[in-house]
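Q: Joint fold for the lines below.
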Amino acid sequence: MKDAISIIIPIYNEEENIEPLYKNLVLVLKNLEHKFEIIFINDGSSDSSMEKLDEISDKDENVKVINFRKNFGQTAAMMAGIDISEGNIIIPMDGDLQNDPSDIPKLILKIEEGFDVCSGWRKDRKDNPIKRNLPSKIANWLISRISGVYLHDYGCSLKAYKREILNGVRLYGEMHRFIPIYASWQGAKVTEVPVTHHPRIHGESKYGLERTIKVILDLLVVKFLANYSHKPMHLFGTFGLLSILFSFLCFFLMVYYKFFMATSFIQTPLPLLAVVFFLIGLLSILNGFIAEVLMRTYFESQNKPTYLIKTPSKNKKS
Ligand code: UDP
Ligand code: MG
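A: Joint structure:
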């Protein structure tokens, strides 16, 4: 029997899109040899999305619907879907008909070839060029450079994952787009395929330019967690020591100017800089201590190991 598929679709005010999306999906999925389920997460819609979804899940037992109490955002919705999914291949997609279900078999094929993650790439993206496409191009370039995982389109919701890859992954903020990065850092094989993208016909996009800024900030957090979560003091401490070093430089320069160049302390900004850099350095090192304590609490309170094992030892007693 082939791996079961879970399709995960966050829905926020998509009343006119739900029915056609469901129909298109079923047309594609029933031609595959895989068992499948479709999980809709209604993210606090204020239109008739909830009724539309309930109608469908009443008729089709392969459809699961979760209704959120209020709008928690696309990432939270995706996480809820992943949490209740039962398939071995997880495929999130948008509920606005912009992703095309007919691309799903392509993604599944890649997973069957042995990849752990296959990302969709909206090669010909049909969104607002200035507000969305350009900032997203820049963001994708930046994310690739910083993460060292080279994909063209992190933001495309349509992706496919092997279930194991998602075990233990918790998503915050805009972080669903970084799953391929997390996965790759933990040794997963990641690839991408071009997918079709349609313009939005019904309803409105929920995002604008501000999303790119959030994505970049989230990326910094991901990078910090990946590199320093076990040793935050190395980051805070290095910065702090550099700052204190700089403060000493300013101090000696200040003394030098006073005694050898006959320049009074108050004629240069050096005394001020010396004090400011010293304080910044000190505070940063103290912050490092707090971060170390927090990290220890994090790992020890949840019994989280600080390593990942690929193959456990074969010779075990009992
Ligand atoms: N969405 C959601 N909660 C939100 C915002 C969006 O569940 O708070 C869903 C939305 O219904 C759609 C998907 O996330 O299915 C992508 O949203 P949208 O089409 O607005 O994003 P864009 O395609 O413009 O990036
Ligand atoms: Mg959209």
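Q: Anything notable?
A: The chain has two domains: 2-227, 232-301. Residues 11 and 95 are 6 Å apart (CA to CA).
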